[in-house]
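Quick question, first post here. What does this chain look like in 3D?
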Amino acid sequence: MKRKPAAHWSAAKSEELYGFKRWGDGHFAVDNEGFATVQPLGDERKIRILDVVREAVGMGLSAPMVIRFQDLLRNRVSQLNEVFAKAIKEEDYPGRYRGVFPIKVNQLREVVEEIIEAGRDFDYGLEAGSRPELMIALAMHEGTKRLIICNGYKDLDYLRLALLGRKLGKQVIIVVEQLSELDDIIALAAETGVEPMIGFRAKLQTRGEGKWATSTGDNAKFGLNTAEILSACEKLKASKLSDCLRLVHFHIGSQVPNILTIKNAVTEASRFYCQLHKMGFPMGLLDVGGGLGIDYDGSRTNFESSMNYTMAEYARDIVSNIREICTAEAVPPPDIVSESGRAVVAPHALLVVEVVERINKRESLGKHRQPAEKHAIVSSLEATLQNRPRLGKLERFHDAVQKKAEAFSLFNLGYLDLENRAAAEQLFWQICEQIAKEIKKTGYVPEELHELNKLLADQYVCNFSVFQSLLDHWALGQLFPVAPLHRLTEKPSVDAILVDITCDSDGKISRFIDLQDVQDYVPLHPLGNKPYYLGIFLTGAYQDIMGDMHNLFGRVNEVHVFLEDDEEDGFYIEESISGSSVGEVMEDVQYQQADLCRRMKRQIDSATRKDVLKPREGIRLLELYERQLRNKTYLGTEPFSTRPKRKVKKR
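> Answer (accepted):
Ran it through. Tokens below.
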């Protein structure tokens, strides 16, 4: 929907409108010239994100692209460890923090490597939830001070790998999720002569909150109930492996929005820990799992896309609650383990997309159609449009909806021709736009008209796939901040939803962050003759690894950015990764490139023999086909200087 232009606008107003300061956590902002910026270390050093895009384009990489700010990733690792260290010091806590990064949140080598390097001074370890992840952890993990936590379902090969790590001197802790796993651990320990380090995952009764609330409780997928924990203790004692039990673990779900839920879970788990210690097991570690959230919408509430606490408050509440319970039970407080993944990696990455087209259902509003023989339904809609002073907003809207439905019914029955149907549609949208303008002036919106702006919103077609790059938005309704990367000194005058280039109608972003509630559209700028780039922020958790190749759109281009004071623009691209080619995604679904080319050549040769094609034309067509296998899967974009100008329709 087109908004009325305003004479006065500023970068500060855009910063407020899109919420940069609320969800940016000191890392994202808008500069005075209207460009979105990132401050990877939260200090005065800034990078214009559009500068990164332009440099990547100069390297031959076009949007869609993922930009990783590696300094920001390292900063998040340091920040997590430092807030726990501070809380431990303030609470005079005798234990220490021993965090681990859950590989499942982002398994990409370049991400895991940076986290390991950033966590070196903190003995920051890794968590694996499958055999392949454990293989990554064993190879990437160095030294004997960092933990490797083994979660998930475990077969004998998984357990053998964990014991291999123990044999190498690594602190590998096997967390028992199902009672049957303990029998296998005991048998393999006897077979190999390796003493395992064991943890129990407790199935808490504290209920989780948010999208992953079912991670706890009686019907939770993982964990031991109280009776099973007692049986497991008996098995360990009978096998003379009591000294192997070192850890109590729990997990109440990802993105926990309410700090009270975390406090309650920590209290319950601390009671389990103390009881096991009193039963004679050495213990020493309490793993509070994941759950530390990201404030995607910046509202600082217990809404599922937000969190009503800070990272520092999270650490302080965990430390103080464990200390309080252990002191009351006269049990030495354990070292604290957390498996925070989303909070570590989500902020460091953003997805950049280019808007390539606009879909406007009211495009022909300025060209009022007059059918040669006007039907009564069209005349009736014209009367509704013209009788604004006499009829109320709600009455006109009801009349317009009813008459539009009648027009479609008449068309289906053969009583309305194409010209009159077009005129009826055109008048309907004129009436809706008229009502929407009146609502903005009066401020009051009747409940039945709440959806009007959503109906009138334009669709901005963006060169990307929701299923590949933002799967959580489609599958879980996860909200991500969306904002233009430039033109932020101009007032956005178009209400829009974003649609991708897949052939699926679900391939769209139609829910956006808002301070008060979820928005059905995002304010954007009219398209001009130059590329228009949008940033989709906080996408570093899960989106990189969970993407689906719907329509065979593959992995997007990617650049890794570091701060560099000696560079004029303050950064350099340390590494670039080219996105998937058509041929590569073909092979992912078992089509060999050579075989496809051979089949095409056979058909072209046949067409040449039949004189359907000339020989040279056939050669050019085969070259075209072969060349497309090397191209990227997304829409091709020409260099800025050669791209044809977009026609902007005046209104």
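The first strand starts at residue 28 and ends at 30.
The chain has four domains: 11-64+349-357+459-489+497-579, 71-346, 376-454, 583-630.
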